[in-house]
Amino acid sequence: MNPPQMKNLTLLLLLLLLFSLHLTSVLSWKKDEFRNCNQTPFCKRARSRKPAPSSLIATHVSLSDGELVAKITNRRDDQIKPLILSLSAYQDGILRLKIDEDPSSIPPPPKKRFEVPDVVVPEFASKKLWLQKLDTKTLDGDSSPSSIVYLNEEYDAVLRHEPFEIYVRDKSSGKRVISLNSHGLFDFEQLKHKKPKSDQEEEKHDHDQYQDDDQDHDQEQVKEEKDEDEDWAERFRSHTDSRPYGPQSISFDVSFYGADFVYGIPERATSFALKPTRGPGLEDHSEPYRLFNLDVFEYVHDAPFGLYGSIPFMISHGKSHGTSGFFWLNAAEMQIDVLTAGWDADSGISLPSDRSRIDTLWMSEAGIVDAFFFVGPKPKDVVRQYTSVTGTPAMPQLFATAYHQCRWNYRDEEDVENVDAKFDENNIPYDVLWLDIEHTDGKRYFTWDRAMFPHPEEMQNKLAAKGRHMVTIVDPHTKRDDGYFLHKEATQKGYYVKDANGNDFDGWCWPGSSSYPDTLNPEIRSWWADRFSYENYVGSTPSLYIWNDMNEPSVFNGPELTMPRDALHYGGVEHRELHNVYGYYFHMATADGLQKRGNGKDRPFVLSRAIFAGSQRHGAIWTGDNTAEWEHLRVSVPMILSLGLTGISFSGADVGGFFGNPEPELLVRWYQVGAFYPFFRAHAHHDTKRREPWLFGERNTELIRDAIHVRYMLLPYFYTLFREANTSGVPVVRPLWMEFPSEEATFNNDEAFMVGNSILVQGIYTERVKHASVYLPGKQSWYDLRTGTTYKGGMTHKLDISEDSIPAFQRAGTIIPRKDRFRRSSTQMVNDPYTLVIALNSSQAAEGELYVDDGKSFDFKNGAYIHRRFVFADGKLTSVNLAPTSPGNSRFSTSSVVERIILLGNASGPKRAHIESTNLNVDIELGPLWLQRGRGSGVVTIRKPGVRIADDWTIKIL
Ligand code: NOJ
Question: N or C end of the chain: smaller count of CB under 10 Å?
């Protein structure tokens, strides 16, 4: 063996060792690898403070540039530099609060704190309300003045000067909606210059003072924590992160009024309504909810621990106020406590509210206060308000809303070909075949393992010929191999994240020694985007799309398996300041790349594991490495609901569970639930047994086929919902209370969910279930989606459960568009005729919508789409246009017709229908609700009305 061969062998052995170490670490959740609050200095400090009237006051309150500005000072200590505050109001009931260090203070702060760019959409600025005059007065019950800011007709915001407090209230009743610093826990640690040891003693005074001095906290403990701060470094296990500016955390309390539950702040595997983490009745050491993007192997199914993504947006909902929201735009590690009633019993604070209230404590390691208050008051108002700040979800391509088949890994071209052929043989549609990391040449992204995939273009073209697509994985860790073009270029251009010493950061990931592109920098993003051109990504074709994984970023040998907090980004930003937004930028740059590749004509599809607020604009996300266990199937629903509520509508969990081997029953149930996830993909770890749908015997194949068919039938409905999300932010999959906001029985229900406003789905999450209790909300009835059987609303039904399906119902009063002909892929269904399922309510009326466009381009932005409203009333079904008709708009047309109209709940037993536009009569027959397998026979069906889906028409039932 010559020396280079020896070197290669040693490297290979080293990699194998690392890989197997990594594998052993994935066998169970290694709690000790991750910090808890007590091991996180800022969290420990913030949690040790006690609520008490604040010693902070707002001074110099005035108007500037249409917003309220003020200084926040500590009335007990004039040595502490004041902070600057601004409050601005935006259309639709949004209040924005910013608090930062004062750049004009003497001495000035050592650097500008990181303020997250590129998350708030540019259009938001134009919604700012220009405040004309300052309304300052002493409100009832107060002894000092407050300044009042107009929000909308019903709500205003109050800045209380002394003690400093901010709240939003209902103007007519004066009742509070959300408040900040009502418990005096606001604290802001200002940046410091590192000084010689002797000078540091004096400085102890200078930070950490934005809190009340009267507090009865344990002085010893605080002293010990401060000493730790003075070390200018933090340690965890074998890692030390330097803190060149000392501790820089921010914390404050936020209260939600008229609230029964709080939700949101994904991503974690836990209940949908967030359980309290502190206060009377709870164990002392329960952990706060953590927001710190991490690659958590084999995560457990119920923990406050944060996973791959972070969205610091919390929503409250309750019977008395309705819904409100609070979003803190901050990308540093965050920890949030939800407190139980009575946690503040000794504080001497009594808040003016006769309504239920939920108090929370927000703590972040760095950054600034850039917070948004959303008044609601309806659930859909809050998501609209939030997505007007962070953007609505991108409109996906039609194929991406269908079924995806993934595995780590499809071995080679033959494997791909076989899997593809088997779908056809088994009459199971699918749209996308995925290739994981093994398809590359040694985990060098943008390359192919030429032994296994010698003809990548041909392989993609074969799939494309059936209307199918392929996705390959592209991760941020870039192999540090001088012969690798990507690494060479990134190194030469200086495009990698730097370590604390200014060298290219070098960490371990799949390829071994790796560096990470610094996509915070727009220039680097643009370069990264160009990597996806057909010319640069050799072997890629127009039907290839992308999967971004490990972008938390995952660093196997880093602290908590991620990048050290003192790594440095563009503009001198410390990694600790932006950690949670790293993956967001990488996802964004990749999506930009696909858009550039198609000359701005092809909608990108990029799946990302790491997310931040606003990721909905860049593509889909999945909930990472779950396990083939029933409890993981169960928790996938609250996880997806939380993501949807916080803007990320296009999400799903690995169907079947990533780790482990699902029993066939679990796999089938997972497909039955997964068919209703917005993002529907099966995926599995390479150590698991193969589990393509046909491998579990004929009966299970049939059941899985059936579940996938349900999704394909409902694609027109799903696509319409994706468009609704794209225009309004309202998620595709939603909690029941989003549709039934005053029904308390739904507030804590995370086993059932709504798909749009028309379908309610109840998952089955235990094996061998024979019966299930299902609560159907509202006053109207519900129709079983398969049989058409009617169930009364407003009550719990005990249902018999078979292996065939999970309970799913269509709400009375709705119309669902379907396509009932089964093809190989969604693309092949494009011109298929429609079925309209009309579920009549007690007034024999119903309504629904259909949105159609070309499924791939951006022409819809110029009006090239069909948007219909179907209204059934007084025995007539009418199709009306909702799309703009002005001549300047582009057009989209289709010759698809309506082939069947099904009337559920029709009282009169009609015989014929009259098509007004053609003046023809057609027969009404009794037919099956589902053609396949003849389910639900005996439903009233208008056959072949022949009207075009794009036209205006009326059909009268005779
Ligand atoms: C981790 C991802 O979560 C998983 O889905 C993927 O298969 C592996 N990385 C390998 O790329």
Answer: N
Q: Does 299 sit in the ligand 1 pocket, CB within 6 Å?
A: no
Which secondary-structure segment (H or E) carries 736? helix 736-739
- Is residue 853 flagged as an active site residue? no
673-686 pLDDT per residue, tens:
999 999 999 999 99
- Token pair belonging to 849: 């919508």
The model's pLDDT over 516-541, given as tens digits with 9 standing for 90+, comes to 999 999 999 999 999 999 999 999 99
Which of 154, 184, 14 lies closest to 92 in space, CA to CA? 154
Look up the pTM and report it.
Answer: 0.94
Is-catalytic flag, 92?
no
How far apart (Å, rounded) are the C-alpha atoms in residues 642 and 264? Answer: 5
- Full DSSP string of 204-253: GGGSS--S-TT----HHHHHHHHHHHTTSEEEETTEEEE-TT----EEEE
E strand or H helix at 45, and its extent?
Answer: helix 41-48
- Report CA dihedral (699, 700, 704, 706) to the nearest 10 degrees: 20
Amino acid at 635: V
Residue 607 amino acid letter: L
Signed CA dihedral, 412, 415, 416, 417: sign only: positive
Active site annotation includes 625: yes
Does the CB atom of residue 625 touch ligand 1 within 6 A?
yes
- Å from CA of 812 to ligand 1 middle: 42
Query: What are 336's strand-pairing partners?
Result: 289, 362
The single residue of 518, 552, 706, 724 carrying the catalytic annotation is 552
Could you say which of 212, 234, 499, 549 is catalytic?
549
CB atoms within 10 A of CB 881: 13
Interaxial angle between packed helices 697-713 and 664-674, expressed in degrees from 0 to 180 and rounded to the nearest 10: 10
Relative to the CA of 654, which ligand 1 atom is closest? 5
Contact in structure between 61 and 68 (CB atoms under 8 Å) = yes
Mean pLDDT over 485-505 rounds to: 98
- Measured at the CA of 339, the angle between CA 338 and CA 345, to 5 degrees, comes to 165
The whole-number pLDDT of residue 891 equals 87
Radius of gyration in angstroms for the set of CA atoms belonging to the chain, rounded to a whole number: 29
Whose alpha carbon is nearest atom 4 of ligand 1?
A: 625
408 lines ligand 1 (CB under 6 A): yes
Question: Which whole number is the average pLDDT over 240-260?
Answer: 95
Residue 36: both structure tokens together: 């808890």
CA distance 482 to 515: 12
The response to whether residue 624 sits with its C-beta less than 6 Å from ligand 1 reads yes
Of 260, 359, 625, 706, which residue is the catalytic one? 625
Does the pLDDT value for residue 253 go beyond 90? yes
Is residue 854 packed enough to be buried (19+ CB in 10 Å), middle (13-18) or exposed (0-12)?
middle
Q: Is the CB of 437 under 6 A from ligand 1?
A: yes
Q: Is 509 in the pocket of ligand 1 (CB under 6 A)?
A: no
Which of 549, 621, 623 to mutate to test ligand 1, by most ligand atoms within 8 A of the CB atom? 549
Task: Please state, in angstroms and rounded to a whole number, the distance separating the CA atoms of residues 254 and 364.
Answer: 14
